[in-house]
Amino acid sequence: MTREDAIAANRELMKSNFPELDSLATDQKINRPQPPLQKPCPGGAETVVLPEVNPAVIADSDLYLCMRRRRSRRSWVEGPLALEELSFLLWATQGVQRIFGRNYSTFRPVPSGGARHPFETYLAVSHVTGLDPALYRYLPLSHQLVLLARGAGLGPGLTEACLGQEFVGEAAVVFIWSCIPYRGEWRYSVAAHKIMLLDAGHLCQNLYLACEAIGSGTCAVAAYDQQRIDTLVGLDGTDEFVVYLAPVGKVKR
């Protein structure tokens, strides 16, 4: 495939192809089982109950000022993120407000096409009060974390996977969002993939504004080595793979 062919194919992905759904039997239409709203928690895994979301962690509730100050932050000041602050950031990006039907869909602070919410949130924690340095996954249905791998050495691996971007590995915590494509494909088939990429933007923008509100900062990262980051998180790269990252830390005001 030439460079021009590759560009043309990617442009097609950006276009709407919803009319094609009229001629397709999606898995939802033919009554195949719906994928779960959340990856199951491994049996016997250690979990952490997060503090209840408390708006008291918000240092600035002026939405206009938060939007005006919003920037990509790539340098951090010393000091950990509070566990209460992390709880708020997780709620702001993927927290479940309401479950509809028999676990059919959820309402969350971010929009998602068909309320499919195809993402899982992994956290590479280095400096969060009350949490051991480790790799965790967020369980939005119960507002908990599940411990995946202990260790304080995630930073260098993250820097390497993100093509040498040192600010990623130096952050207090790195949000790593994976996508489980079938959650969208089950309902929207070939039209799902553009929707899911748009949803990722909604997700990260909420993190930007929530970080500004608590006196922290973040930077969206889309430049990474796919195989390395999937391996670091423990994903198969086919049915689940990383689509976005965002390091978070305290910033100088």
Gyration radius, in Å: 18 Å
Order of the strands making up the biggest sheet = 1-6-5-4-7-9-8
Low-confidence stretches: none
Overall number of strands: 9
Detailed description of the structure:
By secondary structure, the protein is of the alpha+beta class. The strands form 2 sheets. A 7-stranded antiparallel sheet has the order 1-6-5-4-7-9-8. Strands 2-3 form a two-stranded antiparallel ribbon. The chain has helices spanning 3-13, 63-69, 83-94, 154-161, 166-169, 182-188, 192-213, 226-233; strands spanning 47-49, 98-100, 105-107, 119-125, 134-139, 144-150, 173-179, 216-218, 241-250. It has 8 helices and 9 strands. It starts with a helix and ends with a strand. β2 and β3 (105-107) form a beta hairpin. The radius of gyration is 18 Å and the shape is globular. It has a single domain, classed as NADH Oxidase, CATH 3.40.109. The longest helix is centred in the C-terminal third of the chain and has 22 residues, at 192-213.
List the helices and strands and how they pair.
Elements: H1 3-13, E1 47-49, H2 63-69, H3 83-94, E2 98-100, E3 105-107, E4 119-125, E5 134-139, E6 144-150, H4 154-161, H5 166-169, E7 173-179, H6 182-188, H7 192-213, E8 216-218, H8 226-233, E9 241-250
Short summary of the structure?
The chain has a single domain (3-250), classed as 3-Layer(aba) Sandwich (NADH Oxidase). 31% of the residues lie in helices and 19% in strands.
